[in-house]
Amino acid sequence: MKILLSAFEPFGGETINPTQRILACLPDELEGVHLVKVSVPVEFDACCAVVTSAIHREDPDAVIMFGQAGGRDAITPERVAINMDDARMADNAGNSPQEKPIDKEGPAAYFSTLPIKAITEAIQAKGIPARISNTAGTYVCNHLMYSVLHELTMENRQIPAGFVHVPYLIEQIKGKPGVFGMELSDMVEAAEQIVKTVQKYL
């Protein structure tokens, strides 16, 4: 069994992205599951090609995409991605689309095809804060989630796929009073629980 995992590069003035750290700490094999890891640029125009190319190359059994949502206080599996780019700040290539459909002919939204309730419960069972999120925003994370689900749908590929946001790491919240941070070890444990849960449902 093979699961594709994606992480984002740092953005928004940060020098690290927790998702890259998570993937670096995960083993290449986890209880019989081969983990394929890719790093994705925080760019509207380039992020999708990295993941879709990996899907075509690796033919995984599932796709789990990770992104940073600084300010959130939990691991948050996303329920839905909407067909809209509306950047609150420029991406790493300087792009800042405003109220622009991701695909003019695509549906308004796609729902995650991962078992998000079971994932959330598995993370919570380890004592790690987790809850389902009903908005992936309108930035690059949402763009990637929507685009990958759209691509899989258009190709009629029955591959479970979805997106999970993680909060800042503890080291990122220095100088950010009142902002939540999470230990890397908890994020890695949560990621392992996500993989194991997805495996059960395949």
Walkthrough of the structure:
The structure is a single chain. The chain has 202 residues and is of the alpha/beta class. The chain has five helices and ten strands; from the N terminus they run βαββαββββααβββα. Helix 1 (18-25) crosses helix 5, helix 2 runs parallel beside helix 4 (140-154) and helix 3 (116-125) crosses helix 5. The longest helix is centred in the last third of the chain and has 18 residues, at 184-201.
| Derived structural class | alpha/beta
Number of domains: 1
* CATH evolutionary superfamily: Peptidase C15, pyroglutamyl peptidase I-like
Poorly predicted ranges (pLDDT <50, ≥5 residues)?
A: none
Give me the CATH architecture, please.
3-Layer(aba) Sandwich
The helix-strand sequence is EHEEHEEEEHHEEEH
How many beta-strand runs?
A: 10
Q: Widest sheet: strand order?
A: 2-3-1-4-8-5
CATH topology: Aminopeptidase
Tell me about the biggest sheet?
6 strands, mixed
User: Can you tell me the CATH class?
Assistant: Alpha Beta
For the terminal residues, how far apart are their CA atoms?
9 Å
Principal-axis shape equals: globular
How large, in whole angstroms, is the Cα Rg? 16 Å
Strand content: 15-25%
